[in-house]
Amino acid sequence: MTLPMLDINNIPFAILVVDRDQELVSLNNIAQDLTGYSEEDLVAKPISFLIEELDVDKTQETLALTGESSKSYLLKKSDKSLNSVQIRKEHNETFCYLYLYEPFVKKDEISEPLKVDTRTALESLDEMFWEWDIASDLIYFSAELMALVGYKKEPLQAPRSFLKQHVEKESRQELIRQMQTLLDGESSSYNHTYQILTRDNQQLWVNVTARSMNDGDGVGKRVYGALRNVTETKSLIRQLKKQNSYLSLAERISNSGHWRYDVVAEKMFWSTELYRIFGTEPQSFVPSVDNELSFHTEEERESIKIALQNSINNAQSYYNKSTIIRSNGRKAKIETIGEVEVDSNGNVIALFGICRDVTKSEVIFEKLKLLALVNYTIKVPIFFINEEDNVVYQDLSPQQGDGKTVLFNYINFSISEYLKLKKIAKSKGQLKRINISFDDFNTVFDLSVTYEADEGVYIWIVENVTEKFRKEQQQIISNRLALLGNTFGNVSHDINNVLGVALGAIEMLELKFSQGEQDISRYIDRVKNAIDKGKSVTERLLAFTKKPMVKVVEFDPLKDIVDNQYLFKQMLINTIKLNIELPEQQCTINFPQGEFINILLNLVINSQDAIKEKGLSGTIEIKANYNTDNNLEVHVIDSGIGIQSENLNKIFDPFYSSKSVNKGNGIGLANVYSTIYKHNGQIKVLGKSELGGAHFILEFKCKKLHEPANTGVISSNLLTLKQRRILILDDEESIAEFVALFLETHGAHTFHVSDKKQLINAIEHEGPFDIFMTDMILPDLTGRQATDLVLQHFPYIKVFSMSGYIDNENESWPYPVLRKPFNSNELSEFLAASYR
What is the C-alpha to C-alpha distance for residues 105 and 395, in angstroms, rounded to an integer? Predict the structure, then answer.
């Protein structure tokens, strides 16, 4: 069977194909929808199976431009009922094409065919047009229109049902209703926009215009019109509406609206949100300068007028913050910002800007101000800075109006330091730093940074405490010197005792040796013991007089108390008893180690003074325990006069003292309090205790030790020194000889010198050396200089040092240091620990 040459699926209405034997050959998709049958159901069936009273003319040899038309009845699959259908026939030499139209209401007479001359004229314009003949109910669609809908660019004459495939039901019914009003003479023209669906399901927006053509009796015969594709325009309009919607949403979220004042026409435009801010409606309020001023108080109106006129006259930006009274009587705080628009000659033609409701933020900032000023005076600068590092509320700073309103002009820190502090404040919510400096302590600040997450604002509170800091440092030094002077009397007594024991033992040793006595070891032990006691006294005294260090270290505070109990006792008169009770389980804390002992010394001296106010004898207890939070508590309790309840809140104040005249300046406890809280500790005080006097409690976060603390004793394994060549430098020849003799007993080869000249000679003529041991302070050079000389010749030599002086500069010395005086055991342990 030869398939038809015509592409029936490209025809926009139902079509059946019948062969010469009047059997169905094919049908398009629209015909399948109309009949309810599929192509498989109908192929090879006679046409009478589907249509009655149809006469298919098989004699026509060519495809007619206009075919015959007849009315028949279609038998649909759903109910096999007779349905009236209009059929048009066209032929070629093989097939007959049956075009099926749905029934329409016919008039008594068929109108004349659509005028060919009119169509020709319209088609010559290459426009999309259409014409609807009412009598035949046929619509003529131009070639351009058919191409728009997705068909071949050819004109088509089709029934009204053709619209079903491309126009939604509601729009189609509205279109037909409007056409009827044209025919009835109720309107002279029609213009409307519809959404249509193309053949490939693409949605388009088209604008339809129409007019009617009447006969001589005024009865409508035809409706004709044009069609324009306005999809792009509609899309732009929709996009603009969407953008406008976004703008309105953004304005509502930010409590702001935009405005424009036409200077030439003296007209003002308000966005929708501005009406809401002012509490009025577009229907009842016409925006203008005077009408807007009516919302302001009389005091503000004149200043606003002046500011607005200055912006226009000087072509400069406009800014104003003021109060309005809304229509409902409520007050609101608004902030208005504007920029000028100028013409080509530079003349101001308009002002454009935004107006923001800042009522809520003003209230919030007032609250923040109150919070920020707690425990501060108004003289303390406060900076409110947002996430973008802009000052958002600088008028809280008393320096407003001068150069110091900028945080970086007030504190001379770097960008990296600023960002680091900002990051810490954001992560923790708040940070506080006291006595912080960014320029080597030329200026010192107390600094607080609080992050308000809800507002995205950082509150910087900074106070220049340079003078206060310097006075405190001077006072600390004065206190230490005073304490040192107070201590020297007792310490010097002990040193004299030590020297007396040593001198007596040496004289006994000399006497017994001259008498030929062989067993002199006990006298030697006496000398050693005396020297050890003297060393203990001087070391603690030197450590106490050192410049205060702020380096935080991890150490065992209980061991520190035990190691320094000798110093506590030295500072007390012999009629005051000192008791120390410590737990067996040891721990470590993070705190400046020297400051820990200094705090206890300060409290012990205060306790002694309190006892003296009551009498000459008494008791001081230093106790320690772990509380319920597993923190270490150190208690200092005395039997003195105690502290009156009304004075408890004053004792940590600088320069307050309850002691007798010339016995205290009130700085000691203030320093204790400051040091404790600087390093995250706590101090509490009770006016009365079980001993009768005051009770101070120091609390530290600690880490308990489950293993016994390391005593620092290291086995003296000096086998690695055998055959080593060792150079020793010390201006005290007896010390150099002692070290050399000790090392030689362990298999080393030694060479000792006492000054720079001897050192250079040994380097040039006695080397090479494996180890260099040097004193740190010599008459003609330092240990550092000596080490540099040795390293120039022996770059891989191991360096050890010896020193009887304790100073902060030793913190930067990279080599092990053995403190003088030392005995053979200490020298052995030092070398075993240092030489690996």
Answer: 83
